[in-house]
Write a structure and sequence with these properties.
The chain folds into five domains: about 1-40; about 45-120 and about 125-210; about 220-300; about 305-485; about 665-784, no CATH class. Helix content is about 65%, strand content about 5%. The protein is built from 36 helices and eight strands. A hairpin with a 2-residue loop joins strand 5 (about 360-365) and strand 6 (about 370). The chain is elongated and about 150 Å long. Keywords: Membrane, Transmembrane, Transmembrane helix.
Length: about 775
C-alpha cells in the first residue's frame, strides 16, 4: 500500500510538473518573448536607456530594493543555511576562485577576439557584444555586484567589528550576517546564471566564425549609430570642426573594403533617416520626467546642406565602393534632412517652405542669391552613372524630392504664377533636364528596346499613343534644336521626336530648314527631316492650330524670331504640296527671301513617296523676277549644288531633269561660272568645238568649262580636245595651271573631280571611265 501511495503521489507530482511546463511553453513564454521583442524595438526602451532617473532606478534602487527584501526574509525565516561559521572562509575562497576563472576566461576571449578576423563587425568585436549582451557579463561590471563581492569577501574577517558598529547603530544584530548570506547566494546565482547562458552561447560562438549572428550585428549597429548621433551633436556645437566625418572615415579606413560601404550606409541611415532619428526633437527632463520636446537649437538647414556636400567630397576622394543605389539613398537623406529642419527653421521674413528651400540651395554673395542648385546632381553620382537603369533610378529619385511639387504645379497649369524663388527652382530643374537628356543620349539604342521609361513614359509606337506633357515637350523641343549635328545625335533626335506631338516635329523641320546660321548640317540632311515628318506612321492633318503653333514657337526662339516671319511660314504651309507649278508661285517664293530649292524641299518632306512636282510644260521662265537681278535658273542650280547628295533622290533628280530641259546657258555663264557642276548636272548641255575655239581664242575659257571638258575626255563627241593642234596644247596648259594651283597630283585631281561629279549624279562616271579619262589627260599633258 505504501508503494502504491508513493507511486500515486509521484504521478500527481509529475503530472503537475508536465502541466506547468506545458502552460509555460504555450502561453507564458510566447507572451514574454513578444513583450520583450516589442520593448527592445520600441521608443520606450530608448527612453529608459537615456533617462537619468530611470537608469538610476533600474541600476541602483531596484537591485538594492530586492536585496533588502531578501535580507528581511532571511532575518525572519533563515531560509539560507551555510552551516558553521568556520565554513565561511571556504565559501569566500570558492567565490574568489570562480571569479579568477571568470577573469582568465575573459582574458582568453579578448586575446582570441583580437586575433580572429571574423570577430569584427563595423570595427567592433562581436565576441565582446556576445559576452556583454547575450551572456550577461555586463552585470559583473556593475557597482552593485562589486559592492556585493567586497562585502562577501570582507565580512568573515571583520564580522565582530561590523557587529559592534551595528549594535551601536541600534540595528538588529542578525542583519549583517543575513546580508552576507544573501550576498553569497546572489553571487552564486549569478555564476550559475552565467554558466547556463554560456552553455546556450556555445552555438553562438561557432556562428561567429560563419557570420550568422545577425542579432549581435544588429546590436553593434545600434551602438555605433548612437555613438555617431552624439558625434553629430558635437560637430554641430563646434561647426568649424568635423568630428562626425573625421571619426566616420577614420573608422571606415580600418575596415575591409566589403564592409566599408555597408557601415557608411548603415550609419547615415541610422543618424538621418526620419524613422530612426528625428532631427527636430530631443528627450529632455521636465520635473524629473523624460518628455519628447522640440529642440531649442535644432540643426540649421544650411549646416546640414554643407554637411552633405562635405560628405560627397569625402566619398569622392576615397576608394569606397558605393553603388548608384547607395549614392541616391544618401542624396535622398540629404533632401529629407534639410526639408525636415526647414519646417522648424524660422527665417526673419517668415518665408514659405519653397522660399527657404531655394535660399539654402542658392549660392549667395553679399546677400545676392545666385542660381539655385537644388536639382544639381553631385559629381560623385554622375560618375557612377554607367547604365540606362542608373539614369532611370536617378530620375525616380528626383521626382520624389520635396521641391518637385513646384515642378508638378508648373506642368499641370500654364496659368500658375511663380514668384522669384519658384522661378529659380524651375531654372534649376531645367538645367537638370538638360543633363538628364544628355545622359540618356548614350543609351538611345537601349531606349528603343524598352516599353516604358520613368521619364519618357510609354515608348511603344501606336495609334493611341499618349505623348509627353506640354511643358516637357516644349523643353525637349528646345533641346533638340540646339543639338549639334552628329550621327549619334541623329539617332537620338529620331527617338525623341517620336515621343512628341506632331506639331513639335513640324516646328523642328521648319526651324532647321529656315534657320540661316549654324544649323546648316541639319538643314542639308533633308532625308532625315522627312524621316522626322513621317515617323508617326499616321496621316496628320495640317490644321490652323498647328500652323499657329509653328509660328508661335519659332517666333519665341530669340536668336531667329526676327528673321522668320509668320507670313512666310503660312505661305509655305499653303504650298507644301504643289500640284500645278506656275510663275506666280515661284515669284512669291523669291520675293519672300526664300529659294526655290527650299520650296521643293518642303514639298518633298511633306509629300508621300509617290508624289512628284509637276513639270514646266506651261511655264514661262522669262516672267520670273529675281530680287538679286541675276538669272534665277543659275541661282537655282547653285542652290541645288549646296546639297548635291539630294540629286541622288528620285524626287529631286526628276524635277531637275525637267528643269534642265527648259533652260540654256548664256555666254556670261560660260565665261564666269567656275563650278563645273553647274554644267555637269544638266544632262542636256553640250559644248561644241566651235564654242570651245571661240572662248579659247578670246581667253574666256573659265575653270568651270575646262573641268567639265576634262570629265568628257573619253567621250567621242569631245575628241576635238585631243586632236585640235594648237587649241589642244593651249587647253592642256590651262589644265596644268589648275592642277598647279590646287597643288595635287594628276591622279588626285581626277579622283577629286570624279568624286564631286558622282556626288551630284549617282554613278555618272564609273571606275573604268575614270581610268580612261586619266589616260587621256596624261597623254594630253605630255603632248602639250
Amino acid at each position: 500500500m505504501d508503494m502504491l501511495k508513493f507511486i500515486e503521489d509521484n504521478i500527481k507530482l509529475a503530472f503537475f510538473v508536465i502541466i506547468t511546463i506545458t502552460i509555460f511553453n504555450l502561453f507564458v513564454r510566447p507572451i514574454y518573448t513578444l513583450i520583450k521583442f516589442r520593448f527592445l524595438n520600441s521608443k520606450c526602451r530608448k527612453l529608459i536607456s537615456k533617462s537619468i532617473v530611470l537608469i538610476f532606478v533600474r541600476k541602483v534602487i531596484l537591485p538594492f530594493g530586492l536585496i533588502s527584501i531578501f535580507v528581511a526574509i532571511q532575518q525572519k525565516y533563515s531560509f539560507i543555511q551555510f552551516g558553521a561559521k568556520e565554513n565561511y572562509n571556504a565559501l569566500v575562497i570558492s567565490i574568489l576562485a570562480l571569479y579568477g576563472i571568470l577573469y582568465t576566461f575573459l582574458q582568453f576571449t579578448i586575446s582570441y577576439a583580437l586575433q580572429s578576423q571574423q570577430d569584427k563587425y563595423w570595427g567592433q568585436s562581436i565576441t565582446r557584444m556576445l559576452f556583454m549582451e547575450r551572456l550577461g557579463f555586463g552585470m559583473f561590471r556593475s557597482g552593485v555586484f562589486k559592492l556585493l563581492l567586497i562585502y562577501a569577501v570582507v565580512y568573515p574577517f571583520l564580522s565582530r567589528a561590523i557587529l559592534v558598529i551595528i549594535n551601536r547603530g541600534h540595528l538588529n544584530g542578525s542583519f549583517a550576517e543575513a546580508f552576507w548570506q544573501v550576498c553569497i547566494v546572489v553571487i552564486y546565482i549569478l555564476y550559475v546564471h552565467l554558466f547556463i547562458r554560456s552553455l546556450n552561447g556555445m552555438k553562438t560562438m561557432y556562428s561567429v566564425q560563419e557570420r550568422r549572428v545577425t542579432f549581435l550585428e544588429r546590436k553593434i549597429e545600434e551602438e555605433v549609430i548612437e555613438n555617431y548621433k552624439q558625434l553629430l551633436d558635437l560637430s554641430y556645437e563646434d561647426r568649424t570642426s568635423q568630428f562626425f566625418l573625421k571619426s566616420l572615415f577614420r573608422d571606415l579606413d580600418k575596415l575591409p573594403k566589403e564592409e566599408q560601404s555597408k557601415m557608411l550606409m548603415g550609419v547615415l541611415r541610422g543618424v538621418f533617416d526620419s524613422n530612426t532619428h528625428n532631427l527636430g526633437y530631443e528627450w529632455v527632463m521636465v520635473n524629473k520626467f523624460p518628455l519628447l520636446q522640440k529642440k531649442r537649437d535644432i540643426y540649421t538647414p544650411h549646416y546640414l546642406h554643407k554637411f552633405f556636400n562635405d560628405l560627397y567630397y569625402e566619398i569622392d576622394n576615397r576608394d569606397i565602393e558605393l553603388n548608384i543605389r547607395d549614392l541616391l539613398m544618401i542624396y535622398e537623406l540629404h533632401d529629407k534632412s534639410v526639408s525636415a529642419t526647414l519646417n522648424e527653421f524660422h527665417s526673419e521674413q517668415d518665408d514659405s517652405f519653397i522660399n527657404k528651400l531655394v535660399k539654402v540651395y542658392s549660392t549667395h554673395n553679399d546677400r545676392i542669391f545666385d542660381e539655385c542648385t537644388y536639382f544639381e546632381v553631385p559629381a560623385i553620382i554622375i560618375k557612377s552613372l554607367s547604365s540606362y537603369e542608373d539614369i532611370e533610378l536617378l530620375h525616380q529619385n528626383m521626382i520624389h524630392r520635396k521641391g518637385f511639387v513646384v515642378i508638378e504645379k508648373v506642368e499641370r497649369s500654364k496659368e500658375f504664377q511663380m514668384n522669384h524663388y519658384e522661378k529659380k527652382l524651375v531654372s534649376s530643374y531645367d538645367r537638370y533636364l538638360t543633363n538628364l537628356l544628355d545622359y540618356y543620349k548614350s543609351y538611345v539604342d537601349e531606349l528603343k528596346k524598352r516599353a516604358y521609361s520613368r521619364f519618357w513614359k510609354s515608348l511603344r509606337s501606336n495609334f493611341n499613343k499618349v505623348y509627353m506633357n506640354e511643358c516637357l515637350s516644349a523643353f525637349i523641343y528646345e533641346y533638340i534644336i540646339d543639338l549639334e549635328y552628329t550621327d549619334q545625335n541623329k539617332k537620338y533626335v529620331n527617338f525623341m521626336v517620336k515621343q512628341l506631338d506632331y506639331k513639335y516635329r513640324v516646328s523642328i523641320i521648319f526651324y532647321h530648314l529656315l534657320y540661316p546660321s549654324t544649323s546648316w548640317k541639319w538643314q542639308s540632311d533633308v532625308p532625315f527631316l522627312k524621316e522626322i515628318a513621317t515617323s508617326n506612321q499616321q496621316n496628320e492633318v495640317f490644321t490652323s492650330d498647328l500652323v499657329d503653333f509653328v509660328c508661335h514657337t519659332i517666333k519665341n526662339i530669340g536668336n531667329i524670331g526676327h528673321k522668320i516671319e509668320d507670313d512666310l511660314i503660312r505661305w509655305i504651309f499653303h504650298h507644301r504640296k504643289i500640284k500645278n507649278l506656275n510663275e506666280i508661285i515661284v515669284n512669291e517664293c523669291l520675293s519672300k527671301n526664300m529659294t526655290y530649292v527650299k520650296l521643293i524641299e518642303f514639298n518633298y518632306i511633306f509629300s508621300d513617296y509617290r508624289y512628284y512636282l509637276t513639270g514646266f510644260y506651261d511655264f514661262d521662265f522669262s516672267k520670273i523676277h529675281s530680287l538679286t537681278h541675276q538669272d534665277w535658273t543659275i541661282d537655282f542650280l547653285r542652290d541645288v549644288l549646296r546639297t548635291p547628295h539630294l540629286l541622288n533622290i528620285e524626287f529631286f533628280s526628276s524635277h531637275l531633269l525637267l528643269f534642265c530641259e527648259n533652260i540654256c546657258y548664256l555666254k556670261r555663264h560660260l565665261v564666269f561660272e567656275n563650278d563645273f557642276r553647274i554644267f555637269f548636272i544638266n544632262r542636256f548641255f553640250k559644248f561644241s568645238e566651235r564654242e570651245f575655239n571661240a572662248l579659247l581664242n578670246n581667253n574666256y575659257l573659265c575653270d568651270g568649262i575646262i573641268e567639265f571638258l576634262v570629265l568628257h575626255l573619253s567621250d567621242k563627241e569631245y575628241e576635238y580636245l585631243i586632236n585640235n593642234g594648237e587649241h589642244s596644247r593651249r587647253y592642256a596648259l590651262r589644265v596644268k595651271e589648275i592642277i598647279y594651283r590646287k597643288n595635287v597630283t594628276i591622279n588626285d585631281y581626277i579622283s577629286q573631280l570624279v568624286g564631286q561629279a558622282n556626288e551630284c549624279r549617282k554613278h555618272a562616271i564609273p571606275v573604268m571611265k575614270e581610268g580612261e579619262i586619266l589616260d587621256r589627260l596624261q597623254s594630253l599633258l605630255k603632248a602639250g
